[in-house]
Design a protein that fits this description.
The structure holds two protein chains of two kinds. By secondary structure, chain A is of the alpha/beta class. Chain A is built from nine helices and twelve strands. Classes of the chains: A alpha/beta, B alpha+beta.
Chain lengths: 231, 373
């Protein structure tokens, strides 16, 4: 049986993933031309590489359509319900670092913590005739952080597929849940991360689909071991 | 032929509902999703079946009846008091049990005698369940948010803290965290340097003007979201909230109240003992509590079979008073749940306050108790 490893198909993520694999002694090469979406690992016949977008990789590993994938933990936890039952994060790879955070307008000087935000959310409807609106593309992460971790139920999610950090100033939403690496984009938009507002410290990971066949497959253990030592 | 999936006792239940002076309402299966998400919060999104109309309106399969029954009542501008009953399928994503199952229930809107309406809801739910599950040992648990509100007010906490505690009522871990925080306030939090001066001087007008100026300079609207006045007012109030510490006596009183768990025929003396020991005047809440007790007695309910659990509540902001649950069977399946939701009608757009109480029955669970599971 062939093992399939999904790697990011473009950009820094692709280069960094291939570099980690190279350090692990696994040389990835594309089949055909450079832009090909299929690849192989030199010297290993029964491992196939599929180049996919990072969010597709999270879904495909979750569905068990591929055996391994390199993608951000944020995408894994956002696209899969009960992610830990379906996939295993076998190695953290030290690149693609980004935090998923709750950020409010900096001028909300009375809101430092999630508890403060809970107070504001509880009163929002009676003051403004609508619920507190959160712009985000991270529906699942937002819901579990607000509802389960902090007991905050009274808010509405406004879907945002780009330039989320502009939503509070434009009036499209009151606050945001978004990804940040240096925080400079948030700062430029006069937003501030709450003191306990980091939902997830994400980085690129080697993610394995939980498949029963993996348990006694020496190639699976060898691949994990090699990538771990290189990560 | 019975409708697919309708339990075999549905005809008996329909007849029993008809005897309750609560005309049956028909509620469309496909509902606008907004009111449900708006009332119950985003967390509901994962548990309902959402779809979209051709024009982009968010629709869902009805996940429950209370909200659509209340909306229909408001839309048709019906005079109150008015009672409704329903029996039909609801659709929810559940980990256990099917995704479509039947519920039946009663909504009682606008009855001014709240004790009487509360007692009627508990009593009707109990009697319907008893008819459907002969021989089952029913457990009834009852809670009352308005008593908790009176206790919290009696402890002399600032309004912000009262709101926080009431908001968390029914959510044990959240409430415990707040009580721990009230025992040990975090004094380290300092206001932001840009506003500390205004706060120290008590310069409210200056603070507001400062916030407004920053908002304008940074391109934030001063009215689309939180206004400068709102932020300034909460900043000032927050200082008091952060510094609030409950005395050991008040903390003990709060904990003692939340630990109360007694048979309902002992509830009135237990509550007055508590109030006397704690030195709290909660007599108005006590009167309402006792009026409900009396009304239940008058209906012939066996008070010793009902438990009052002071910490029992639902952390949804439209529930205001009574909540109850009836369970049975080896797994203590909840067969019926109900409560008073006086704030819901206005949240849904009613022009004036309309007191409301209701209950619903879970027919799939009643079926498993009947089957002896």
């Amino acid at each position: 049986m062939t093992l399939t490893v999904a790697l990011p198909s473009k950009g820094r993520m692709k280069d960094d993933a291939i570099a980690v694999f190279a350090r692990a002694g696994l040389t990835v090469s594309a089949i055909g031309n450079d832009r090909s979406y299929r690849g192989r690992i030199d010297g290993i016949d029964d491992v196939e590489v599929a180049f996919l977008s990072a969010s597709e990789i999270a879904r495909e590993v979750g569905a068990g359509a591929v055996d391994f994938g390199v993608t951000g933990e944020d995408l894994v936890r956002e696209s899969l319900a009960r992610a830990d039952e379906r996939v295993e994060i076998t190695a953290r790879l030290g690149f693609g670092n980004a935090d998923v955070v709750v950020a409010v307008p900096d001028i909300w000087k009375d809101v430092d913590s999630m508890a403060d935000l809970g107070d504001v959310a509880a009163d929002f409807r009676s003051r403004h005739g609508r619920r507190l609106a959160i712009a985000t593309k991270y529906w699942r992460l937002t819901q579990s952080f607000f509802s389960t971790r902090h007991g905050i139920q009274l808010y509405r999610i406004v879907e945002s597929l780009g330039a989320t950090e502009g939503a509070p100033a434009s009036g499209a939403a009151d606050i945001i849940v978004d990804i940040t690496t240096t925080g400079s984009t948030l700062k430029a938009n006069h937003l501030r991360i709450l003191s306990d507002g980091v939902i997830l410290r994400s980085e690129a990971c080697l993610v394995r689909a939980r498949k029963p066949g993996h348990d006694d497959d020496p190639r699976v253990a060898a691949l994990i071991e090699a990538v771990r030592s290189a990560g | 032929m019975p409708e697919a999936g309708l339990p075999d006792f549905a005809a008996d239940l329909a007849r029993a509902l008809d005897a309750l002076e609560a005309p049956r309402v028909d509620i469309p299966v496909i509902q606008p999703a907004e009111p449900f998400l708006d009332m119950a919060g985003e967390d509901l999104r994962r548990r309902i079946f959402l779809t979209e109309s051709e024009t982009g309106e968010s629709l869902c399969l009805r996940p429950e009846f209370t909200i659509p029954v209340c909306r229909a009542h408001i839309a048709e501008n019906v005079a109150t008091p008015r009672r409704y009953s329903y029996l039909g399928q609801v659709f929810r994503q559940r980990r256990e049990g099917g995704n479509e199952f039947y519920q039946a229930g009663v909504e009682d809107l606008g009855e001014p005698d709240e004790a009487r309406a509360d007692a009627r809801a508990v009593s009707e739910a109990r009697s319907l369940i008893a008819q459907l599950t002969p021989g089952a040992d029913l457990k009834i648990i009852l809670g009352d948010q308005s008593v908790f509100e009176a206790v919290v007010a009696g402890l002399g906490l600032p309004a912000g803290w009262q709101k926080r505690l009431i908001h968390a009522f029914g959510n044990g871990p959240a409430l415990d965290a707040m009580i721990a925080r009230l025992a040990n306030p975090d004094a380290s939090a300092q206001p932001d340097a840009s506003v500390a001066g205004f706060l120290a001087r008590g310069d409210v007008a200056g603070l507001e003007a400062h916030i407004e100026q920053v908002m304008q300079e940074t391109g934030y609207s001063t009215h689309a979201s939180r206004s400068p006045a709102e932020i300034a007012a909460r900043l000032i109030g927050k200082q008091a909230l952060d510094a609030t510490r409950l005395s050991p006596g008040a903390l003990d009183a709060l904990k003692a109240f939340l630990a109360l768990d007694v048979a309902f025929d002992r509830a009135a003396p237990a509550l007055s003992d508590f109030a006397r020991h704690a030195g709290l005047d909660i007599s108005l809440a006590q009167q309402a509590f006792e009026a409900r007790l009396d009304a239940l007695s008058e209906r012939g309910e066996d008070l010793s079979s009902i438990r009052w659990r002071a910490a029992f509540g639902r952390p949804l902001d439209y529930y205001t008073g009574l909540v109850f649950e009836i369970s049975a069977g080896a797994h203590n399946l909840v067969l019926a749940g109900g409560g008073r939701y006086d704030r819901l009608m206005e949240l849904l757009g009613a022009q004036e306050p309309i007191p409301a109480v209701g209950f619903s029955l879970w027919l799939d669970r009643i079926e498993s108790v009947r089957a002896g599971k």
